[in-house]
Design a protein that fits this description.
Two copies of one chain form a homodimer. By secondary structure, chain A is an alpha+beta fold. Chain A has two domains: 4-81, Winged helix-like DNA-binding domain superfamily/Winged helix DNA-binding domain (Arc Repressor Mutant, subunit A, Orthogonal Bundle), CATH 1.10.10.10; 88-130, Dna Ligase, domain 1. The first copy, chain A, is 43% helix and 23% strand. In chain A, strands 4-3-5 form a three-stranded mixed sheet. In chain A, helix 2 packs across helix 3 (35-45) and helix 3 (35-45) packs across helix 4 (51-63). Chain A binds chain B through residues 71, 73, 90, 92-93, 99, 101, 103, 105-106, 109-110, 113-115, 117-133, 135, and chain B through 71, 73, 90, 92-93, 99, 101, 103, 105-106, 109-110, 113-115, 117-133, 135. The first copy, chain A, binds a DNA duplex through residues 14-19, 34-36, 48-53, 55-56, 59, 75-77.
DNA sequence: ATAATTGCAAATGCTTTGCTTGTGA
DNA sequence: TCACAAGCAAAGCATTTGCAATTAT
């Protein structure tokens, strides 16, 4: 039983075979798969699982705080396991590769900007799009 | 002839009535309208303009660097006149209001982060989502 | 004149949903 | 058992596109 499954049973989320599969695939994922990719990986194990179920499961997991959804500039939503500590993303515009990074300084500045404008920050989105520097 | 129209004729973009209307509405806009809102404002002047044309025009203007497209967390794309100097946005999650801000420090840090990861920054996205602080 | 642009409606791509059947606790 | 979940196909939404008719230069 992986950690996602543990969280599910704790939260009283019914553990079906297909949810276990999505949980497993998300646990193993080292990238940021979209629903289609997720579905591909899941159906490699059980070909009967439908995309609709993957969509529903992914939404369920997201609402449970188990995974995170990202809408990068690609049209389709991409997912990753909810990380212990927040990070942001740099997207390689050529390869599509996604690199995670943490920068406390930027985080602080964002809070300050919001405060200065009279707002409490409830969410934010920071994405860098770049090209590899060849050396 | 407004400044968008000037840029168009300079760039050899054919100036049709509907494009003039979109240009006018965008020039007057003090907010960040989506295509539907744009269409509403345009058809208030000429009811025969179709949404398809607004979509096409908005894409044309964007590619010409005349306006900017933003995909906030709202489902639909929103537009603003391309600003002289870059700015980012804070979105009031309750009212939907959009506040523009500039923060050089954050900009610099983003460059640094990218560089440190071996990337040249070609684009970025910084959005703050917040709630008004009542005082 | 004529190549580009429009309007319309049909098509797209991602995502959601209604409904019937299947199933986990 | 039985409320909830899955599968399927249809529906939704924002956006794009093919095509015949119209228009700017």
């Amino acid at each position: 039983m992986n950690s996602i499954e543990k969280i599910c049973s704790q939260k009283g989320v019914r553990l079906t075979d297909q949810r276990k599969l999505v949980a497993e695939v998300m646990s193993d994922a080292k990238d940021h798969p979209d629903v289609d990719e997720l579905h591909k990986r899941v159906t490699k194990i059980d070909p009967k699982v439908s995309v609709a179920t993957v969509y529903r499961t992914v939404k369920l997991f997201e609402e449970a705080g188990i995974i995170e959804k990202h809408d990068f500039k690609s049209g389709k939503a991409r997912y990753e396991r909810a990380p212990e500590e927040h990070h942001d993303h740099l997207i390689d515009v050529n390869s599509g590769e996604i690199i995670e990074f943490v920068n406390e300084e930027i985080e602080k500045l964002q809070e300050n900007v919001a405060k200065k404008l009279g707002y409490k920050l409830v969410d934010h989105r920071l994405e860098l799009y770049g090209t590899k520097i060849k050396k």
